[in-house]
Design brief:
Order of helices and strands: HEEEEEEHEE
Number of strands: 8
Mean pLDDT: 84
Structural class: mainly beta
CATH architecture: Sandwich
Radius of gyration: 18 Å
Largest sheet: 5 strands, mixed
Shape: elongated
Length: 150
Amino acid sequence: MVLIWTCGAAFSQQIAFTSRTYVQSPVVITSVEGSKEFGFDSVVIRNDRPAAIAAVHFQITLRTAAGDEIVDERRVAIGIEPRETKRLGVDLAQKDGLKQQARSRKQESALVILTIESVEFQNGSEWKQTERDSGTPFDPVRPVKELPRK
C-alpha cells in the first residue's frame, strides 16, 4: 500500500498560479480568485486610464524549466469606466488540463501566469503590451543574472 502511494506522489505535478501586470498597462489586476476547477475563476481589475474600456484580452502562460508556453487566452467584453474597479468571471487556467500538460512535458512543477495582453477602449483605440521582450523583468522563479563588471 505504501509503495502505491509513493509511486503516485512521484508523478504528481505542482502548479502555482500568479498574475503579472505590465508597467505601462492601463488596467491593473488587483486580485485573483481561483476555484476547484480553475486557477483563475475571477479577477478584479482597475481601469487606471481616463478612457472607458470595452474589452480586455487575457493570456495564460505555462512556465516550466523547459520554457514558456502560451496555453490559453481570452477576450472579455466589459464596460468599465475610468478609475473604476470591477470583478470579472474569467474561468481561465483549467487545473487538470495544466497538470496534464506539465506531466506530458515531464515537469514536476510549473508556474501559471495571467497577464493582460491588450485593452480595447470604447473610443476605438487600443493598448497592446510591448514589454514582454524588452527590459529586465522581475521573475521570482528564475534568478536575475548579474551584469558583467567592467
